[in-house]
Amino acid sequence: MRCVVCLALALTFALAGCHHRHASEQPAPMPPVVPTPLVTPKAAPGAAIIYVVNPKAVGNDDSLMARTVTLGHTDSPVRGAVNALLADKNTPVPAGTSLRGLTIEGSLATLDFSRSPVNESGGEGGQGDALTALGRTLGQFPEIEKFQIRVKGKLVKEFGEFTTDGPMDVTRPEKKP
User: Fold this and answer.
1) Which residues, in sequence order, are CB contacts of 58 under 8 Å at separation 6+?
2) CB–CB of 52/92 below 8 Å?
3) CB 112 within 8 A of CB 152
4) I need a surface site. Which of 33, 69, 74, 136 has the fewest CB within 10 A?
5) How many angstroms separate the CA atoms of 123 and 88, rounded?
6) pTM check: above 0.85
7) Mean pLDDT for the chain?
8) What are phi and psi of 50, to 5 degrees?
9) What would the mean pLDDT of 51-75 be, rounded to a whole number?
């Protein structure tokens, strides 16, 4: 196939050189250049990035790692991503926690869980990992800037060692140069 393409290109260049243009002929004008807007690439449809415990993290290494998951059929990519985080075998969220509801008003996402998404007895590191994983997972969605957590409909501001004054900021993924 590559030989056919090379042969076709060679013939095209050879024939183009054989055409004589009279001095009075002018080349056709180039069409005007119309600038196109720069489009930022998006994640593949049906996929999301979740942040789970990195079993190889030691010492000061980041204890979370990114994992790309396929969402399948879902009415909301945000809901699909959070559910994928909850279902992952390396989730920092306690087993048995489910997402009861999700609302997005403006740039605020409210997540309503069946139980606290933070393991209250998991120590400061484990508690922080759960909140960080949620903030990073939500951070891939540009429409979300902050999030808050409800448990069975009740707004929660205390998570073991951590207390929030209001909605928490999401963490945007780092852009590579």
Assistant:
1) none
2) yes
3) yes
4) 33
5) 21
6) no
7) 76
8) -115, 160
9) 82
